[in-house]
Write a structure and sequence with these properties.
By secondary structure, the chain is α/β, with parallel strands linked by helices. The protein has one domain: 3-Layer(aba) Sandwich (Rossmann fold). The protein contains five helices and five strands. The chain has a five-stranded parallel β-sheet with strand order 3-2-1-4-5, with helices on both faces. Belongs to the universal stress protein A family.
Length: 130
């Protein structure tokens, strides 16, 4: 089994990791920790380095738990929600775990939502953590 975590490494990220450990142990799964960025230009280097650092920390966390883990930083010119869904399909992922933020309906309408896209578009079960 493969479990994909949409991960930014902040706030809700720790809850995602804990839940992923439970699921990975229960289903003898490999975890794919994924961060998706729309662009990777020179001006984005600080964000890229931060994302890589967060992914490295998550990978170490899973390895300490005895869980196989792959890390992936996606910079493929796609919106993060679409990118995560496409990557999950490419890797034949069995479950996605993603964090959700509380936002007003107007906020969701104006700014979209990575989690919303993943929940609505994914071909596998999606577990959301608030």
């Amino acid at each position: 089994m493969k479990i994909l975590i949409g991960y930014k490494g902040i706030n809700i990220g720790q809850e995602l990791l804990k839940l992923a450990v439970e699921h990975a142990k229960a289903f003898n799964a490999t975890v794919l920790v994924v961060t998706s960025m729309l662009e990777g230009t020179e001006k984005d280097q600080k964000k890229i380095l931060e994302a890589e650092k967060n992914l490295d920390q998550a990978q170490v966390f899973f390895k300490e738990q005895g869980i196989p883990c792959e890390k992936h930083l996606l910079i493929r010119g796609m919106e993060p929600g679409e990118d995560i869904v496409a990557f999950a399909n490419e890797k034949k992922v069995d479950e996605i775990i993603i964090g959700v933020k509380s936002r007003s309906n107007v906020g969701k309408l104006l700014f979209g939502s990575t989690a919303q896209t993943v929940i609505l578009e994914a071909d596998c079960p999606v577990v959301s953590v608030r």
